Amino acid sequence: MQKIPMTATGYQRLEAELKNLKSVERPSVIRAISEAREHGDLSENAEYHAAKERQGWIETRILEVEDKLSRAEVIDVSKLSGDKVKFGATVVLADEDTDEESTYQIVGADEADIKAGLLSITAPLARALVGKSAGENVEVSTPGGSKGYEIVSVAFK
Known about the structure:
Belongs to the GreA/GreB family. The protein is α/β, with parallel strands linked by helices.
C-alpha cells in the first residue's frame, strides 16, 4: 500500500470533506431519493435518477477520501529544513524570459491549488524542481513548449 504525502492542512481538509459527505450530503441525497419515490413511476422520474446518480458519486467519493486518509503520510513542514527543494518547500522562481517571480509550495496531489500557490508534488514543474537548490536553473516541458526558470530561494515555513 503506497503512502500519500500531504501536509497537515491537506489532511484536515480531507477530514472535513469526509465529515461533510457523511453528515450533510449523504442524508440530503437520501431525502431526495425518498421524495422522488413518492412521485410514482421510477422509470420516467428524472428527479429520482438524478438523486441516485448523485448518491453514487457521494458514496464513491467517501470511499476515495477514506482510502486517502488511511494511506496519508502527514509531513510537518515546520520541522523540515535544508537548501534543496523537496516536499513542503516553498520555492520562489523567476521566469527566465520575463524575470517575473512566482512562489509555490510543493504539496500533496490532493491539496494542490495553483492559484493559491500550492503545486502538486506530481506536477511536471515540481518534479523538475525536486533536488535542486537556489541559483539553479530548470527546464520544464509544457504544452506551450519548453519553459525555463531560475530558483531564487528555497524555504520551509
